[in-house]
Every structure is written in C-alpha cells, then in structure tokens.
Amino acid sequence: MKAVIFATGNENKMKEVREILKDLGTQVFSLKEAGIDVEVEENGTTFEENALIKVDGIAAWCKQNGIPAFPEKSADDFVILADDSGLEVDRLNKEPGVYSARYMGYDTSYREKNASLISRLEGVEKADRTARFVCAIAAAMPGKESRVVRGTIEGYIGWEERGSNGFGYDPIFYLYENDRTTAELSPEEKNGISHRGRALELMKEILREVYAGK
Question: Which run of H or of E encompasses 17?
Fold first, then answer.
C-alpha cells in the first residue's frame, strides 16, 4: 500500500484520520509533515466538487514539485486524500453547508458559530431541527482516475453546547439514538459512526481494491 498524504492542517482531524486508517498498514502524513504548502481555492458548489478540486490541485502541484519532505521519493509513491466536510441544517436551507469552515469568517470561534446557529433556530421544535454532518473524501491515485465518496450522519441541532471530546460543530449536533452530542462520544464511538469515519471506510475499500497485493 502506498503512503497516504491527507490534505489538512487540522490536528484534530488528523487524529481521527490516523485512527480510522490505521488498519491499512501504511503511513499517513499531513500536508505539513509532507512539506507541502499550497493553497487550492475550493470554489465548488458541493462537498464532492470541493474535495476533488482540492485533491487534484494538490496532486498536480506534487507532480510538478515532488514531495518536499521526502526528496528521495516520487509523487507516484503517495496517495493523496482530501476532504470537504460540513454541517447541513435543514431549517436553514442546509446552511452552513459547504461554507461551514467559513461561516461567519475563518477567525470566528466555533463557540460563536454554534451560538449563532442555536439563536437562528430559536423557537423551532425538535422535529424541525434536523441536521446532518456530511463528509466527501477524494483520492488522487497515481495512474488512476480520482475517486470520491460521501459519508453522512443524521441528527438534530440542540439548544446548548454539550461535551468536550469533539471540535467544530460537534457540541451542538445531537444524535437521535441517545440525545448525546458527538462531542460527548469517546473517540472510538465517534469514529465508528461519524460522517468522516463512514467516508473513510468507503475510501479504504477503494484503496484496498486498487492496491491489492502492492
């Protein structure tokens, strides 16, 4: 199996990714660890479009410049994965959606973002607070067509933040099964049911199929 570069600078996300991909038996590097410093404008209108734009842009850069942290290796020695993920709130026309990271500005804290979403749902009953986390993960594989998969998890937006295990919108995203937020789940519980976990499981199947015995 080729080594993996996951296109993120988010350490919380990297912890989840490494844990979920550990049974692939290969190394998983962040962009920083691979020495890659490139910005790709994600101007798509769907999570899938953005994930593909990002992964193809980074793959093209690596093809031209190599992998700076591993000058002895070729870009063809790596699979590059990129994701676009976010929160869709049905009552708010599926906002913040693909703009989840940019909602209210990149420099705005998630505590403020979460408070804003709760405020915008003031007076709305539980049945109408439906929401989902979405994660699209794309893979750029040397000599192969890029692939993209989607994982989702359904829930609702609560009335307050709860839990400290997650990040981002986790503290306000409640699960119907037990009325706990994804920030109240252990890392193992969350990885087993999360949108990112489900998308990565689908991607693992693709990588195993493509690189079986290699």
Answer: helix 11-21
Distance between CA atoms of 50 and 159, rounded to whole angstroms? Answer: 31
The rounded distance, in Å, linking the Cα atoms of 126 and 105 is 28
Q: Which residues are catalytic?
A: 84
For 178, the token pair is 């037990």
Instruction: Give every residue of the chain whose pLDDT is below 70, as ranges.
Output: 213-214
Determine the residue type at 52. L
Q: What is the CATH number of the domain that holds 182?
A: 3.90.950.10
- Spatial distance between the Cα atoms of 86 and 169, rounded to a whole number of angstroms: 9
Residue range(s) defining the domain that contains residue 197: 3-210
pLDDT at res. 52: 98
Alpha-carbon gap, residue 166 to 173, rounded angstroms: 10
How many whole angstroms separate alpha carbon 169 and alpha carbon 159?
13
Verdict on whether the full-model pTM lies above 0.85? yes
C-alpha separations of 135 from 61, 118, 149, 151 in Å: 24, 22, 8, 5
d(CA 48, CA 16): 20
CB 88 within 8 Å of CB 121: no
- Name the residue type at position 151: G
Q: Could you give the number of structural domains in the chain?
A: 1
132 bridge partner residues:
88, 154
